[in-house]
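Appendix B, Record 12. Input sequence as logged:
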Amino acid sequence: MTPDDLVLTPKGIRFQGRTYPCTVGKTGCTQDKKEGDGATPVGVHRIVGMLYRPDRMARPTHWALPIGPRDLWSDDSSAPDYNLMVRAPYDASHEKLRRADPLYDLVILTDWNWPYAVKGRGSAIFVHQYRRPGYPTEGCIALSRADLHRIAPRISYKTRLIVPDLHPS
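Logged structural output:
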């Protein structure tokens, strides 16, 4: 681990010497991630991209890409582009990246089950804004808007999201 890694701890995400409160998936962390299980996958996940809403915020870093009105994320394990960013119109099951709420105004992408997805192993493990403190996600890591905006410009493609098995059985 390096100080530039995002490391999940029982108290939050540790990054560059600070710990930021966060939430994880509603069913906790798992070593056996499946699509729709609501769990955050245990492991070392590379940061592979960053997306942002240009109509709501300034570009957080030079390598961040804008989210457009037609941008979606495929979560249909039977689709050939499962766990990839796609564009509307798109008939298979998907998640809208340009949401009415602010949860995806800034999204840090991980390499969970990407770029060569194993069908049903789970899609779209992002680091994004939470609804409110303590409110769980569908499997992503979520932080307050202020903390996410503080962290985003400081990460790079060398940054990793490290999710240890905090409750080994």
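The first helix runs from residue 145 to 151.
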